[in-house]
Amino acid sequence: MTYLMNITDSGWPKTSDGVYIGRIHGTYKHYGNPFSHTDAPATRYVTSRTSAVMEYLLWLRGHRYTDHLAEQRAWILRQLEAGALLNKKLYCWCTPLACHGTHLMQYQLDLVPATCNDIWTF
Ligand SMILES: [Zn+2]
To answer: From the CA of 101, how far away is ligand 1's center (Å)?
Structure first.
C-alpha cells in the first residue's frame, strides 16, 4: 500500500519505504509542488491550497505549464514509470489537508497498475 504521511506528526522518513515528496532546493530531482498559496519557496504562486494542488495535477499530467520546470517533471515521470512510489510512505507537510501527493499516488497507479493489495490511503 501507498500512504501519505505528515512529517510534523511522523517525523522524517527513517526507513527505505519512506519517500520525502516536498520541495528540495537546488535540484530538479524532487517531487515537490512548484505551486503554493503560502510564502513557501515555490516557483508559481496561487491563491489557495486547492489551486496549488490542482495546478500541480495539471502540470504533472502535462495539461498546463508544460514549459515550467520541464526537467523536474521529466524526472518525476521517469520515477513513476519505474514504479518508484509503489508501496511507499510519501512524506509531506500537508496531510490531512489537501496535498499534491494524492496526485502523485494516483498517477503512479495509472502508469504502473497496482496489485489488488496496493491501494492508496491516507
Ligand atoms: Zn503536501
So the answer is: 6
Residue 117 CA to ligand 1 centre (angstroms): 24
Query: How many whole angstroms separate alpha carbon 64 and alpha carbon 26?
Result: 23
Ligand 1 centroid–CA 95 distance in Å is 6
- pLDDT tens digit sequence for 18-37: 999 999 988 999 999 999 99
Distance 52 CA to ligand 1 centre (A): 10
| Region 58-69 average pLDDT | 95
What's the pLDDT tens digit per position in 85-114?
999 999 999 999 999 999 999 999 898 876
What domain range includes position 55? 2-121
Q: Ligand 1 centre and the CA of 53: distance in Å?
A: 8
Number of domains in the chain: 1
